[in-house]
Design goal:
30% of the residues lie in helices and 36% in strands. The chain has four helices and seven strands; from the N terminus they run E-H-H-E-E-E-H-E-H-E-E. The protein is globular and about 40 Å long. It catalyses: N-terminal L-alanyl-[ribosomal protein bS18] + acetyl-CoA = N-terminal N(alpha)-acetyl-L-alanyl-[ribosomal protein bS18] + CoA + H(+).
Length: 148
């Protein structure tokens, strides 16, 4: 039987997270950014989802006072469509609540309807547009949020 766990990310996970990042985003974060997030940012919380001991996705969360912001979320393309993103997103919402967050927000590409539908399933609603937010192609970002 396969085992899926979700846990806090460690610096030992950065190489694998960077691989997923590179396959998921046109302008991926560097390993150094993840290292700094994990070791220097007191507001940052990062989580990974593992299947049979292999990291297949990750999600970052910043919590400042009672506001939570998803920094990024990605699932390895080979593991998409298998509900790992859904499980990870629910876990991160629960962590945000446990950390005292009253509200959660994120940005998503206006063209990323799959992600938007996932977020809508958790009650997130559109809250505005950030024009030319993504620097690779100047695509707008849809800001979505939910009261927890």
């Amino acid at each position: 039987m396969t085992k899926v766990i979700i846990r806090q990310m460690t610096v030992m996970d950065i190489d694998r997270v960077a691989q997923i990042e590179a396959t998921s985003f046109s302008i991926p974060w560097t390993k150094d950014i993840y290292y700094k997030e994990l070791t220097e940012n007191p507001y940052a919380f990062y989580f990974v989802v593992e299947k049979d001991g292999l990291i297949c996705g990750f999600c970052g969360l910043w919590v400042v006072i009672d506001e939570a912001q998803i920094t990024n979320i990605a699932i390895d393309p080979n593991y998409r469509g298998k509900k790992y993103g859904k499980a990870l997103f629910q876990y991160v919402i629960n962590q945000a609540i446990a950390l005292g967050s009253a509200r959660l927000s994120l940005e998503v590409r206006v063209s990323n309807l799959v992600a938007q539908n996932l977020y809508k399933n958790y009650g997130l609603v559109p809250g505005g547009i950030r024009k030319n937010y993504y620097t690779d192609n100047n695509e707008d970002a849809l800001v979505m949020w939910v009261n927890l």
